[in-house]
Amino acid sequence: MTRKIVIALDGMGGDMAPDMVVRGAGIARERHPDITFRLFGPATRLAELVKRVRWLSDCCEIVPAEDVVTNDDTPKQALRKRRTSSMGMALDAVADGQADCIVSAGNTGALLASATVMLRTLPGIRRPALSSLLPTVRGETVMLDLGANMQCDANNLAEFAVMGSVFARTVLGLDQPTVGLLNVGSEEGKGNETLRDAAAMLKAEGSPVQFHGFVEGNDIGAGAVDVVVTDGFTGNVALKAMEGTAKLYTGFVRDAFKTSTLAKLGYVLASGAWTKLRKRVDPRRYNGAVFLGVNGVCVKSHGGTDALGFAYAIGVAVDLVKYNLNDKVVGDLKKLREIVAAEVAEPVVAVAGGTGTP
Amino acid sequence: MTRKIVIALDGMGGDMAPDMVVRGAGIARERHPDITFRLFGPATRLAELVKRVRWLSDCCEIVPAEDVVTNDDTPKQALRKRRTSSMGMALDAVADGQADCIVSAGNTGALLASATVMLRTLPGIRRPALSSLLPTVRGETVMLDLGANMQCDANNLAEFAVMGSVFARTVLGLDQPTVGLLNVGSEEGKGNETLRDAAAMLKAEGSPVQFHGFVEGNDIGAGAVDVVVTDGFTGNVALKAMEGTAKLYTGFVRDAFKTSTLAKLGYVLASGAWTKLRKRVDPRRYNGAVFLGVNGVCVKSHGGTDALGFAYAIGVAVDLVKYNLNDKVVGDLKKLREIVAAEVAEPVVAVAGGTGTP
What we know:
Two copies of one chain form a homodimer. Chain A contains 13 helices and eleven strands. With 358 residues, chain A is an alpha/beta fold. In chain A, strands 3-2-1-4-11-10-5-6-9-7-8 form an eleven-stranded mixed beta sheet, with helices on both faces. The longest helix of chain A has 25 residues, at 232-256. The first copy, chain A, is globular and about 60 Å long.
């Protein structure tokens, strides 16, 4: 361990902030002794909370920030508070090099817009993207964009593929993560021109990405690829649709076990199994969406999370800082650019067009 | 019961056709004594199969069709076989008025394209849409488009809302089904211009649709609205993503109960609960996507379904024919057109624009 990782925390972001933030920091610190915090928010109130958490006694500097970005604030309103709000000041600490990363459970739109403006994007990245790990049959899959960009062109999608691929190498420890473009079918002609153009870039010779091809919605849960790439509209809808289904099925299972005395008895006997199941699908384990492509590590925690979930989000930030994610992204992007530039100079045969199949 | 409903069956559509089609027809006929079939496909082979199913002895006319639309056929190739294939000839029977509806488990793209050309669209409908019922916490929800139209404008979405609303009244027996537009947030400024324009049309005074507003992916499983409207790309991805999650969770539950002897015992005791659960989430119960907007009733069964699932798809077709779905769609669309025309004549205040929030 060379030096401590400094984490800027938005003390007032999240439905249960600031209490949840402080306790989450305590849990994370217990797991990662090599981290320290710069905690932004109302000083007196935060000091009170920090005092109660043993793990934070010697590693949490409170930086007074009197303003708060609320959930109703537009990105513009949030940006106006950048010098005074807990979110803005925490981002500023990363921009200034006073912290290695920021973790916030605050207003998503405000955080993404502020991070883009204040941290700027990495060289070669036109649009940062929101990314997260999702549970699958085979383990875990990286998915992006989950809602930062409503419309994306082929270049954006290709950049997402590079960023997602590096992210998977970093957090999943994979050598050659496979990348799929989310579409309505796996055949080459499916979808729209944007998707077909992005596919052509990604499968070009020398591409830094192990491109699998098009994948469909059900391939996400099946773990067909390590990285699923899509635009922010589709990604956000699909992610939430999957969350809704998970909730629905949990309810169905619970209902089924209430229907008879035998079933209730079975439920009690299987309580160990339930605990394991609950742990496995615990959404807190997947908390911590990474805003990839900004020049700095920015992790967005779910707004409704508790301390344990927030600690997981901090853990994601720690991983990314340790593995120098952004340097690797910049390197791989350069490779992709060179290939695309070479292809423009010497055009290859166009990708097979649409077959007209919807 | 005035007269029998005549159902045209694509005898060769589906992975397990024609056996599955014939046995599915038998199950459907047992449930609906007021239906008869015109079964298209290889005559000798079909006659062999029909002979084995008691319920079909007096209600199944075999119409020889020697050609087959395969899963590899493009819509164009399928259309070329319209006079000779089981799918094309079954559609033709509906177009000619020799059958009230068609049920096919064949190639989706081919069926949608052929149905659009051969049946044509209803007056006022620019684009037909694929629609289905999905299970929710509150019961069932209609969702469309599930993959017929990759790109949709505001008019298309508004038409889908009208069709989905009539569909929900018909198959769910609701007086005033609520309709939501799928988006990345429920606030007015969210999403893109297409969605905001469609919302403006649907919430106009006198709209034939009970418009709830924007809904998010998780609202589908929560049953927040009776009808979820989206473009075919997003709908297809979301639907399949939800299917993938359902599969994932089923696997998680199964795994959890294998972990200890007590859990296994609990599993056995709760076997009644499992049976109930399996029934409730049985995808066959939700088989039968309706191609709304064509001038005729066209139901697409899942290609991999078995006889029971195919029987459910036939049941959907029977319901739609009985309730004159298409007449109601035409009536409600006329209402929407009048409102939109009136609004163009006297423009209302524009809908609140985007806030810039992703």
